[in-house]
Amino acid sequence: xxxxxxxxxxxxxxxxxxxxxxxxxxxxxxxxxxxxxxxxxxxxxxxxxxxxxxxxxxxxxxxxxxxxxxxxxxxxxxxxxxxxxxxxxxxxxxxxxxxxxxxxxxxxxxxxxxxxxxxxxxxxxxxxxxxxxxxxxxxxxxxxxxxxxxxxxxxxxxxxxxxxxxxxxxxxxxxxxxxxxxxxxxxxxxxxxxxxxxxxxxxxxxxxxxxxxxxxxxxxxxxxxxxxxxxxxxxxxxxxxxxxxxxxxxxxxxxxxxxxxxxxxxxxxxxxxxxxxxxxxxxxxxxxxxxxxxxxxxxxxxxxxxxxxxxxxxxxxxxxxxxxxxxxxxxxxxxxxxxxxxxxxxxxxxxxxxxxxxxxxxxxxxxxxxxxxxxxxxxxxxxxxxxxxxxxxxxxxxxxxxxxxxxxxxxxxxxxxxxxxxxxxxxxxxxxxxxxxxxxxxxxxxxxxxxxxxxxxxxxxxxxxxxxxxxxxxxxxxxxxxxxxxxxxxxxxxxxxxxxxxxxxxxxxx
Length: 510
Hints:
Elements (H helix, E strand, L loop, with lengths): L2 H17 L4 H8 L3 H9 L14 H17 L10 H11 L7 H15 L17 E13 L2 E12 L5 E6 L4 H15 L5 E4 L6 E4 L5 E3 L1 H10 L2 E4 L9 H14 L5 E2 L2 H15 L11 H9 L14 E3 L8 E4 L2 E4 L9 E4 L3 E6 L2 E7 L7 E2 L6 H6 L8 H9 L4 H14 L1 H13 L1 H4 L1 H13 L5 H12 L24 H11 L1
Parallel strand pairs: 1-4, 1-8, 4-7, 11-15
Antiparallel strand pairs: 1-2, 2-3, 5-6, 9-12, 10-11, 12-13, 13-14
């Protein structure tokens, strides 16, 4: 029975009881209903809500352990890198294709479980309108990634267009001012122009002091950077992130879509290449309420952006330290190896992601920047000349240990070193190993490793043979061109008749 009909029946029961028969049994007999229903109508004019039957969930029941395992693992995951219901449904489709289930079913179940766990929070935002090229929003967010087998917490820069919805993401180890400004330039080149207004939190990279109202005392370098690229800046009220809700939502969306599960890369450069590919991939998506995909809208908006500056802003920090007795230079408490003699003054150019060391204008060393304190960043290649004079220092050297940690010293190097030492003795065998390592500077790690592996597979352990295998890869043998001899037929001469000469030789033999 529909609810409207039931309400009318309750009204008829109540009237009949009050103005008619006046007894429960009489009303039930006259209207053909149960006495229990008559008592319900007399107690309340509103019919009681119908009890929802407990339905069995044959498909969902088989997926509950899988979902519970994901939610359980999310307890240890960073708060902003936990699975959403949509992401769980995507994983079910990919990892358990035999169990077909609707996304709405997963959403409802995950919502109930997250409510029980106290994870669901809702906020109200006011929709805004923007003109093309008018505003971009900037923010940092944290994310975890596995770099070279180690889980590291990174700071991720994000800049989002408020019209097209396109966004640029780039990860750094620290959210320094230098990284902040470099990421801006990378983002400007990604969008193909500069937004007229950029909205920020009160970042230390840009704001030196928060004054009354919307006034800010900005850092000198940020003012120069803003003047160079010709954009305006605006800063949100402290502790009011909803004033830049576009980038807040973008950070959450990108983290859920491309940081779950935790990405893996060899180093920060490879990870940022993955993030850039993910930004390009997101250009294919279409935001609800937008008439066209993100990438198409971004191309249209590009015509309304300010043009790029002809020259980049000078971001590098330059210093001139002296090489110490360990073959290192000290840069902000950390030591970086360099192939130069002790006591020599070199030029160090400090970038957000790497450190470049120059000697007489020539780049002699380049290291990934270390943001720790009192650390040593060593490269075995910088000590090969010294080790050739002191071969006994190779086995226990810190540069060798650093190569092992970075995966640049494979097991076949140990096998080759053992074979060389057993054949030539420890000093001579170690020197031959150093000669093999010296080939890396010209031919690269992969080519030398492949040559060592090939030599060992042939049962050969000789530095000269490995040098030949490495250089043979670069040798290009030119194939001789095929010449058509048909045009040369006119120059053919008859073959000489030598029968008389053969007869003469026969007579001499007799």
